[in-house]
Amino acid sequence: MDEVIEKLKKVEGITSKTAEKILIDIIESKEKLNIIKDVLKTIDENFDNCPICNFYTINKKCSFCDNETRNKDQICVVTSKKEANKILKSDFRGMVHVLNGEINLNKNISPELIQLPKLFARISKDMEIILATNLTFNGEVTANYIINVIKENCKKISRLARGIPFGGSLDYIDEETLINAIENRRIIKK
Amino acid sequence: MDEVIEKLKKVEGITSKTAEKILIDIIESKEKLNIIKDVLKTIDENFDNCPICNFYTINKKCSFCDNETRNKDQICVVTSKKEANKILKSDFRGMVHVLNGEINLNKNISPELIQLPKLFARISKDMEIILATNLTFNGEVTANYIINVIKENCKKISRLARGIPFGGSLDYIDEETLINAIENRRIIKK
């Protein structure tokens, strides 16, 4: 049992306690086991990473990149798919770029590891880049690094408004606050 | 995405936030997806419910019922497999019986629904029954119901010592405290 729990813990979001609950529930009920099997099949067959923005695609379609009604000249840079998912549900009508993490010198996470080259390749002169990295130390490092690289290559750079508490992780912010922060974004280069 | 999250939430222990984290992790990494697939396969092929005590079996063997060195005349009655798992790791050398819940009149959970008939069928004159239900209202109702039914049919009935805080759920008790409470159990019938 402990062996199986250790395996499950390798998946993001699953703690020992969660793993134990899940295992007991699926031992007791084949129905629950089939639910997870179904979900894995759906993910395996229909979901993938978007080659452009690194959000997920369903049946090869990305809700951002393959939506013609979105403003291609506005890219909101976020650190994870979770935040991109929140932005998808908000009123924001531009594009996103999912970094998959933040620059972290202590953990040897360099710009190449977090999809930054892909971001830089997307940027053009007419664009506004909205930096929506976390307002934490590593989030700031990441934002400043991006600003330095792109400042000559785009029209406008902005950061989320300080509606978000200092030191706060975007993960726990409600959608309302998030869209407010996008609307009140602070212009860094105009 | 929300549809898949709703599905996963049907499994015990998975909240919306956990489901989202799991899904994003398995979209990003096939390796994680395969870990869960592996776990499901292992559970499906090797794990089952023990027909005697309702703990789990691995390859049809129950760590309690199929272990000849355990004392068959001592049955510790618990409400879930999780607690049985803790007891398995402790120094207790008797058997267990997993109830799968507690009697709850508000929720129409009657004795038949929680594996009590199976418990009663196991009891014999030479046995000690150790009641390790939670020290909550429904745990007490369940314990009292069992005491009333079995008091003439076994040698000894005991409850866990009050080392466990009143109103406390067994789920969050460490193994040390649990084994102490078993050792200091209060005798109800001698």
From TrEMBL, chains A, B:
Record domain Toprim: where: 73-165
Record-annotated membrane-spanning stretches: none
A GO biological-process term: DNA recombination
SMART domains, sorted: TOPRIM (SM00493)
UniProt keywords, alphabetically: DNA damage, DNA recombination, DNA repair, Metal-binding, Zinc, Zinc-finger
SUPFAM superfamilies membership: Recombination protein RecR
Gene Ontology molecular function, alphabetical: DNA binding; zinc ion binding
Listed InterPro entries: DNA_Rcmb_RecR, Rcmb_RecR, Rcmb_RecR_Znf, TOPRIM_dom
Residues in C4-type zinc fingers: 50-65
Highest taxon of the lineage: Bacteria
Purpose: May play a role in DNA repair. It seems to be involved in an RecBC-independent recombinational process of DNA repair. It may act with RecF and RecO.
Family: Belongs to the RecR family.
Stored PANTHER family: RECOMBINATION PROTEIN RECR (PTHR30446:SF0)
Name of this chain's protein: Recombination protein RecR
Species name: Spiroplasma litorale
Classification of source organism: Bacteria, Bacillati, Mycoplasmatota, Mollicutes, Entomoplasmatales
Gene name tied to this protein: recR
